[in-house]
Amino acid sequence: MRHLAYAAALVCCLAATLPLVPAFGLRRMRRVGLLLLAIGCGATPFVVWDLFASRAGQWHFDPAQTLPPRLLGLPLEEWAFFLVIPFAAIASYEAIGEVLRRRR
């Protein structure tokens, strides 16, 4: 079960923030193209950094805590991290903004 640790953490982040979209009517989050562009712009330098650092041996991903499949040497969970965490951050930011707008 330990090999599911990283994936489980990502699922929990997504499960906690995905309901914010319908709960607060976050219309900006429904603009998928714009959302993916924002995530891609933020994720690209970190993916490149991850690739170089892991290949240079500066860090590694514990096979005991990740799923076996790799893409360009990175576990699938690491690729999902760069989608899930920015989504969670943007959804949280938008939800807080909506709460503040409603309070005014």
Question: TL;DR of this structure?
Answer:
By secondary structure, the protein is mainly alpha-helical. It is built from 4 helices and 2 strands; from the N terminus they run αααββα. It has helices spanning 5-17, 20-24, 32-55, 76-103, and strands at 70-71, 74-75.
Report on this structure.
- The mean pLDDT is 93.
- This protein has helices at residues 5-17, 20-24, 32-55, 76-103, and strands spanning 70-71, 74-75.
- Strand 1 and strand 2 (74-75) form a beta hairpin.
- It has one domain (2-103).
- It is mainly α.
- The chain has a two-stranded antiparallel ribbon.
- 67% of the residues lie in helices and 4% in strands.
Characteristic key phrases:
104 residues, 4 helices, 67% helix, 2 strands, mainly alpha, single chain, two-stranded antiparallel ribbon
* Largest sheet properties: 2 strands, antiparallel
| Helical run tally | 4
**For the largest beta sheet, what order do the strands appear in spatially?**
1-2
Mean pLDDT: 93
Silhouette: elongated
Strand segment count = 2
Secondary-structure element string: HHHEEH
| Oligomeric organization of the protein chains | single chain
What is the count of structural domains?
A: 1
Uncertain ranges: none
Q: Radius of gyration in whole Å, from Cα?
A: 16 Å
β-strand amount: under 5%
Helix content: 55-70%
Classification by helices and strands: mainly alpha
Termini distance?
Answer: 47 Å
Describe the secondary structure blueprint for this structure.
Layout: H1 5-17, H2 20-24, H3 32-55, E1 70-71, E2 74-75, H4 76-103
Antiparallel strand pairs: 1-2
Helix pairs in contact: 1-4, 3-4
